[in-house]
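Lab notebook, bench 4. We co-purified these components, and the gel suggests they stay together. Before we commit to crystallization screens, I want a quick structural picture of the whole thing.
Request: model the full complex, all chains together.
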Amino acid sequence: MTDIFVAPKKNPIAALDNKVLKTKIPLVEEKPAVSQKNLIKTVDPYSLKKKMGLLSSFGVRPYGVSFGEQGEDEEIFLFLRRHIVTNIPWLVTGLFFLLLPIFLFLIFDSSPLPFTTPMNFIVIFLLFYYLIIITFLFINYTGWFFNIALVTDRRVVDLNYSDVIYHNMAVTKLNLIEDINYVQAGFMRSFFDYGDIFIQTAGEKLNFHFMAVPKPARATEIIQNLMGGDKDVWS
Amino acid sequence: MSGVSIAIPEFLQPLFILKVGFLALIVIFIVFSIIMSNQIATMNKSLNQKQASGSLHAFSILLVLLTISLFLIALVIL
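Here is the predicted assembly.
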């Protein structure tokens, strides 16, 4: 007798696959849409601290900078150094003296010297000469690097270093500042956006001059805000 | 009649004076570079900049070592 109905054999694995395919599984966890405006609000501006490198001259809430007399909960809000453009004169001078021996060699190679110099003297003299030039460049660089102004939530710190043997540190509290203004005059200063900031303190206290610092308007605004107790330096 | 030749002592020879003067100059430079290195170490204490302070001090020490090396080379060659 022939079979009228034969039930198909169920493949358990195929059945399971079919079930899985039919089930809607979200590939990515769905999140409510966030508008651009809300996204800006969610980014913590204080996490955008700027790393200060070997050539940095302006930093708001700089990362990785501290000074000797800094309090434990004292935070640096502003880091100022002379604009990088102000280094051009000594760089050009250094470059000139670096190339000078080559030019002299080319000049005197065609016309013999009126005196004879032992070769070993010339070699040692040249090495010494280049060592002096490198030291000259290094001293100028450190002079630029260590001449800084810091503004914390409590005070203004002016660190000076020049001619290798001179350094000093001047500090004043923010509440002792009476007046702050800046001067930005001249083509170069307007073009590269740098200028001088003058801070007058109360009474007989010393005044602070931050010369040729970048973005003087912004820096002045931040210091004024800090004087008023407003630490929102990002706005 | 033959002329009398006077022997000049070595320390009065122009080349010898030049050598000593040059070596003295390098010694002064060594002292200067050591002072510079110490000053940079002091300044690093006043201003600690994580990305840069160490490399500046290292470079100043390198300058001291280079100057001492130059002095030794000059002592041998000259």
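Residues 37 and 60 of chain B are 5 Å apart (CA to CA). Worth comparing against the SEC data before the next meeting. Chain B has a mean pLDDT of 86.
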